[in-house]
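task queued by scheduler; priority normal; single chain, no ligands, no partner chains; default sampling; output format set to structure tokens
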Amino acid sequence: MTTAEQDAAETVGGPGPERTRWAAVAAVAFGTFLVVTAEQLPIGLLTAVGSELSVSEGTAGLMVTVPSLVAAVAAPLVPVLVGSLDRRVLLLALLALMTAANVGTALAPGFAVLVASRVLVGVAVGGFWAVAGGLAVRLAVPAHVPRATAVVFGGVGAANVFGVPIGTLLGEFTGWRIAFTALSALALAVLVALLAVLPPLAAARPVRPALLAAQMRNPAVRVGILATFLLVTGHFAAYTFVAPALRDLSGIDARLVGPLLFGFGVAGMAGNFAAGAALARRAHRTVLVIAIALAAVLPLFPLLGRSPVGGIVLLLVWGLAYGGVSVGLQTWMIRVAPRAVEAASALWVSVFNLSIGLGALVGGLVVDAVSARGVLWLGGACCLAAALAVWTARADQRLG
């Protein structure tokens, strides 16, 4: 942690500093909950949107693809463009943009306007993640940084378990426009919460293009970026098609897939906090165990998941392991780039978002050309490669 970052962390408090710090961490967690929900909510509403706006479901899928790609570009670009702007002001501005973007989606008269509003969502998502992902080092004392990071990333699991399903149900019963109106109200509420509890956060070190490029000269940062690319690509290549895998390989009734994916999300939340506790002691070993677990569970699916019980058990283990990926790799980036946390985080967020889209794309090609089994083997191979990459950084003392 830099001196400026330490000073920023120390000024969070005032009376009851520890309580104030954790209130700020919780507010940032609500922010991550919001941005993930905003990015993924259209998945459950594509049919309704396509029907009303007279576009195919495939075209409506641009509501998900566009913000993911924009977020990948915005993650490194937004910190560069804002320079030394107070990060509290930046986060508030991004949430104001998110609020306006979701209002635009709710009121869109046609699909072109709707996609334009989703571009703004992508800017808000990428910019918010780039800053929020590394805020734990600013808002918590050093000993509590892994736990604070786990709390921040708990918002990701909560969005998958609660935010997206509840938003989808709301859209089904009241209309998709109401769902996005509710999302804009939530964004405004999170903005108010951050305004109330987040302290001033002067930029410890403005992000410049040269600083971004310099991170890639750090071998441990390169390993973290490579591991992120492989793990996220492998996961989404397989997870995008988990429903047909459960149905065709495990013989699970299609009506049970939704509840089982809810269970996957709950297991992921448990994995997030378990990883957060382990990372405080041994970051390298924790990330390595996560990668090995994913490298094992995915290819085991076609072998041991050929019954409903086997499929369910492997799905929950999968969720438990993947739940630690975000907090594990973000902690990795914090540890190996302590003097450039925001720059390293921006690169990480960019690669993470690109890998989501690439994983789904490659997975679709493999499913069409081979089968659901093929995509599970592909996911396992990617995770095994990630484990090997992580293993090469075993001597880095910064990772514990």
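post-processing summary
- The chain has two domains: 3-197, 209-399.
- The two ends are 16 Å apart (CA to CA).
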